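pinning this so it doesn't scroll away 📌
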Amino acid sequence: MSYQPQPPNSGPPGQPYSQSGPGNQPPAYTAQPYGQYNLPAQPYGQPAVYPQPLPPTYSQPITYSYPPAPFPTRAKTNPLYAVAGLGGFLLAVSTFLAWATVRLANIEISVNGLGAVSSNSGVGTSGANLRDGFIALGIGIVAMVLAGLGGFSGRRGYAIGLVVLGLLGSGLMLFELSDISRKLGNVSGVSVGFGLWLGFFGGLLILAGGILALVGRRS
């Protein structure tokens, strides 16, 4: 018995050696083209769907927007209130001046709006019944306060109060002028003092200033 060498086994491990022949060829290796992938089969008649690459994302800096700061505005003022303020000052000062003057020989006696009596001889007394002078003083002070508030704020509401005060002040001074002239007009040496005229003019200024501030423009 003679030994004949067998060709190497080309089949999978564990299988007996097989003879080489046309029916025992090793499986052919089919390489895929570069860039091609095995995609799932699509139904007949449907186009193949290829995955699309996602666009690159970049982190953007976070920006915060704030409303612009309000621009400081200057408060509107109304200089027309100064006319009413001047009128209130004159009305208040008039109460310290003579409302009536009596001249007897070389003696001159004056009575101011607050009832104080003075003379050129150096003798001064008090007690004259002139209560209207305190009312005029109060009207003048209140008019100055309202004129100051209205002038700095520019509000026209204060002008209405000044119109009322102007009517009261000028009306009071006009009443005192006519009353003194009527009671003491026939007495020799008696005359109306400068204070009443000044107070009447101050009342008119309060009234005029209130009207101008009410209809005028603010700046």
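📌 and the second one:
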Amino acid sequence: MVPILPHSLRLLLFTFVLLGLPVTPAQAGCTRTPAHWSNKSGVAWPAPYSRTALFFSSGLTWQQVLDTPPHADNAYLILAHHAIAAMLSRASGASAPFGVQAVLDHAGAWFAGGTTPASCGRACPTQRDWAGILDLYNSGNYPGAPPLCSS
């Protein structure tokens, strides 16, 4: 399945193709899902991330965000779960295609902009799109991304 990319990412990919730049870097490492980072005992998080650090302006720690079920009516938490897993996979050595890295950059800027779980209820279709892209990446199904880790 090919992900439907937001307009800004389609333009970025078109620019890469137009300029003859590589769209997908070489694969390295493997990805892990939000459940792996949240629920597996003894899983150490890569530096500089910490389970006890505050997750941007959410008022919750990174671990508390992962422990909060991402109900369908809260796009903030849905995106946060997938962004956390993708950031931790990247810090653990997983490569990311340019489209995934662009989504991570946009999501990081959005979280850093002062949004909270209450900021984005049923709305925020762009953030839901980003979460879908990161879900594909985390599960090893994004085109050109590394596979899901086997253990």
